[in-house]
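Regression test case RT-17, inverse folding.

Input:
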């Protein structure tokens, strides 16, 4: 029997933006990967997952727990379904999925092959970057090294006269442009330590949630 904390439910809701399905594994770690396999997220949670199971419609599963109940217990002692209970009156059966139909992360732990650039973004900076992309309708986010500084820029890289928004986050002796699509930045609210590899992979770590995202860069990224 387990309960899901508000923090764990927030992580799971965030995971639905990456993949609508999720395979839970026994233990305290939950991991997901996007259908295009260009975003991987993993988190350490407080709860102990008692056994492996898979949920095909994760948004519906979270809504069942969050909307139909106030503080339910979740029993995963059967191989077929979760029994969701509150008091003596309220019960739901939520049936598991075949894990083979769900796109899941590889068993091997993800790691950056190198770290060319590292910096931090506080909560307000993250929110401002996402907000500016929405307000100005800009599809791209780039981490750019030029003129001795590292800056994070939101823009439309296909448009030479694009509006943009930028934040200086550090200093550098190198020149680079590490490029992402805004649609691949699925970060939960909070502050992040960011590291980027010239192998076109970035890591975003949220200490408050013990949550890490690995995001693939666009292939036209450069590092000199």
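Golden output:
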């Amino acid at each position: 029997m387990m309960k899901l904390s508000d923090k764990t439910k927030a992580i799971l809701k965030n995971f639905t933006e990456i993949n609508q399905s999720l395979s839970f594994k026994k233990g305290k770690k939950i991991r997901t990967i996007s259908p295009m396999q260009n975003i991987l997220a993993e988190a350490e949670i407080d709860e102990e997952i008692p056994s492996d199971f898979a949920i095909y419609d994760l948004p519906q599963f979270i809504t069942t727990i969050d909307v139909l109940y106030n503080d339910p217990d979740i029993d995963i002692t059967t191989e077929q379904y979760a029994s969701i209970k509150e008091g003596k009156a309220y019960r739901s059966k939520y049936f598991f999925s075949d894990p083979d139909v769900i796109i899941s992360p590889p068993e091997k732990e993800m790691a950056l092959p190198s770290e060319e650039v590292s910096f931090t973004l506080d909560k307000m900076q993250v929110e401002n970057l996402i907000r500016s992309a929405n307000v100005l309708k800009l599809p791209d986010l780039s981490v750019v090294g030029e003129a001795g500084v590292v800056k994070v820029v939101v823009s439309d890289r296909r448009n030479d006269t694009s509006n943009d928004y930028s934040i200086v986050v550090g200093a550098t002796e190198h020149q680079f442009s590490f490029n992402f699509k805004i649609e691949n930045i699925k970060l939960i609210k909070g502050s992040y330590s960011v590291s980027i590899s010239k192998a076109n992979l970035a890591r975003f770590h949220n200490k408050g949630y013990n949550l890490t995202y690995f995001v693939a860069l666009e292939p036209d990224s450069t590092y000199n």
